[in-house]
Each structure stands twice: as C-alpha cells, then as structure tokens.
Amino acid sequence: MMSNGAPDHTIFGNPHADRCASDGLTLDVQDRHNDIDKEIYETARREAALRRLEATDRRRLAARLDSAIQEHGFALRYAPRLTAPRGAAEPSPNRWGASPPRSTGTSPASSLFCGAELIIGVQHRRRGVVPVESYLRSVKRAPLIASVIVEGLTEALAETAAWPVAWTLSVAAPPRLADLSALRQALAGITPDQASRVAFMIDEATLIADGLDALDRLDALRSDGFGLMLDRFGGRFGSLALLRSLPLTGVKLDRSLLEGEASQRQANRVFTEACVAIGHDLGLMVIAGGVETEPDYTRLGRMGIDAVQGSWAGAAVNAATINHWLRTAPHAA
Fold first, then answer.
1. How far apart are CA 295 and CA 137, in angstroms?
2. How far is CA 208 from CA 1, 99, 177, in A?
3. Looking at the domain assignment, is residue 25 inside a domain?
4. pLDDT in tens, 294-330
C-alpha cells in the first residue's frame, strides 16, 4: 500500500538502513582480513625465529663436533659380521669353541668373520663415545658431513689394512642423499683398491623420503668402485622393486623381521625368503641385522641368508681386538 505518496518501507525496505548494513558488512570483512593478515604475519615471524634458532643450534652442534674430533679424534668401532651356515643343520658349539662372556665384546664365532660395519664415534664429556650419526642428522652442512665420514673411513681403512681382501667394511651414508655429491668429492683420495672394500649403507626410509632422484648420485658412487647396501630393508616399506631399481651390491634386512607375534612371524619368514631369492638372483649379498640368538642364526642360514650381524655375532669392538682374533683363529674368506 501507498500512504501520502511515500513508499512503504515494509515492502521496499529502507535504503539508508541497507547502506548502513552494507557498510557494517564491509567493516566486518576488513576486520577479518586484518585478523588473517596479522595471523599470517605472526606465523611467519614465529617460523623465521625457529629457523634462526635451528641454524644457531646447528652451528653450535657443528662447532662441538669439530672440537670433539680435534681434541679426541675418532673413536672407531667395528660390529662383526658372520657368515651364515646356509642349509646347515644345527651347528655344534665346538665348531668355534665356547662362547666367551658378552661383556668382553668378543664374538662367539670368530672363525666365521666375513666383514664388519664401521661405527664412527666421537668422545662426549658426559655420554662417552657417541656415534656421529646422531650429530649428522642435525648438522645440515654437506661439506662437514662428508669430511667427517671420509676422515673416519680413511682412518678405519688404515686400521684394517691387514684384514682379508674379501672382507667388506660397510659405513652409513649421509642422512640426506642430497649430500652424496659432496661425499663423492671428498672421497677423491680413496684408492680403487680401498673403494672395493667399502660399501655405503643407504637407509631404506631415507631413500623413500628423498625419492629416487638420487639415482644418479648412487650410480656415480658405484662407478667409482664403492659398494652400496640398502639398510634396514623391510622395517617400514620393504618394496622388493627397490632391489631391482637401485645399483646395489647388498641388502641388510631390518631386525624387526625377527620379531613380532606368532602370526606375524610366518609373514616375516615368507618376506625374508623372497628377499633372499630375489637378492641372490640379482647378485646381491643378503645380510640379516639384529640377530641375538643361535637359533635365529641357524634358521636364517637355512633360509639362505649370506651373513648376520647383531649381539649374537658380537658387540662392536676396536680394530685391535679383531686383529687379535685374526691372529688366533681361522676366518671366513
């Protein structure tokens, strides 16, 4: 209805009220945008502060690592690796003599040595010898990471020069595969004969996380004569296609394949046997890690495992101890 020629605002609405509502909506939107901008700014500021703290921590960590190496040098240890009795019956303890106490760090089967894993350590004031891997995962400086690995490896090669040529010395690769280029440059002083004795261990989880774009770097190390071993295989992923896709010389199975409930053990056994079969078809050495008992050792040997490593094989020891075993007992060539 119309009254005195004026519009009925109940029908057409109040233009002034609409304008006020519109202005209020605009102000609300601007306030929300301002709040979002402030939140984005605060988030970016906090992230920048965290990055600065992390960078400072890394510099301090790198300085401590350098200082520890300069002051004490490396504390090198070697975790023994034993050949497995493929297809053999239950071995007699007399085959290698009585097992010495575990606390001595000596091996129960020194006659079966076929190599060792190098553990590069540094001296910590409170914690004693600490593996450098725990440092290198936090220090994001490729040249430092490469120099630490190569300096430790060079010292280890000098200590183990008298070991049999067939023995392999494996050592962990940098925690980030992007650092392999720096590692390769630092390896320039390693001779071809020395390179043939060394296998770099590439962690399976690291390989998956970094992607397969590191293949060219792995190929370059292999072309230089170094071996490549896929470490902790089957612990989280266990893609058998990796064994075919990578330029590997060996694979080390994760210790979790020896554990688990009864229902899981059968699946682990099937997976282990598949790894052994495929690995051998591809010419790879298949090693089981984390072996703690003689029954596990024997069972893995029946599956066709080439070698084992773990507390049953022996604790990590210095080179002098293994050199003593070499002089007093026969070994696997």
1. 35
2. 76, 40, 10
3. yes
4. 899 999 999 999 999 999 888 899 999 988 888 876 5
